[in-house]
Amino acid sequence: MSIIFLAAMVSENHVSVAIIGGGVAGLTLANIPEQSGISFILWKAHDRISPPAGASVGLMPNGMRILDQIGIHDALEEYIVPHDFWEHRDADGSLSSDKGRLRLRHLHLGPPAPARPKLHDLPTDASLVLFVGMNGTIFWFIMEDLKKTITYGQTPRYSDADIDAAFAKVASARIAADVTFADVFSKRCAAVMTALQEGVAARWFAGRMALMGDAAHKMVRHAAMGATQAMESAACFANRLFELRAKLDGGDGADSGDLPPLIAPDMVQQCLEEYTERRRARVTEIVQAAGTSCGAQLKKGDAAREYIDALPRLRNEVLLEKSLDSLLKAEKIDGWAEDSDHVHHYSLPTQRGGGTALANL
Q: Where does the FAD-binding domain start and stop, copy by copy (predicted)?
């Protein structure tokens, strides 16, 4: 999506913000000016807010905090169900562990010496991750290494025949002792195949227009951060917008009214530069982390091998600390009057520094 500072079309008393695209970034951004008195226009190509396209949206703590700020966290919670359990199954579909108890017991006792070299061996052909959601709906993904980098503009389009060919490679993989992936695939409601894109745009703005979300920072799904980074960019841009408004009319915070009718080009330039500079380093880091995770899952290259080899030696606390360090850098809407107790509580560690994050969350 993109954003435009649009000269007043209807009124001579203010400038409207035009939002092109009603995806995660666009809808998040639209909520913020709507609640803070800034005029905006939202353009969306689809005739539905949530068209039946794309995959799922991962909601991580950094995104949930922003959704809490704009007042829809509680509505989302009505659809949340408790997580029941994880199952880990061997290549023949037999249950190897339930909720990690069996795995931890074996690590504690230690396997017989001849088995140790194979303790952390990974499947050489295929492995599966399936999520069972509401009403027994199963979500699954097949990831395939394209073996080469494809530049933007040359992205291939896939047909049903390509989907069938990809499915055939994992059709016999066992999900349970008497269930194969072919059984799941035969009951599919929909299946699409697309090349996963990744990259950070070299330039995010020109004149009064700026990019946001996937248009500026596209990442593979393996970090589950695409949607939440779009939300963070929306919050970051809104904060710069509030700062601009404060400079123009002497207001303060996120609730002091509309933008005045005349905004000098250099002030717009500064606003968009600050938005870009604040976001570029963080999203670049996350795009790279997602790519590393993708490579590891596909077992692609030396970096992936090193990452996989290191996993058994990493304690849970270390992995959690790495995640928390990233979350501590997350954007939120500054000076927001609607902040909840949740937002205040989970924002405290950012003021204390990353070293105490694990102890305080």
A: 15-90
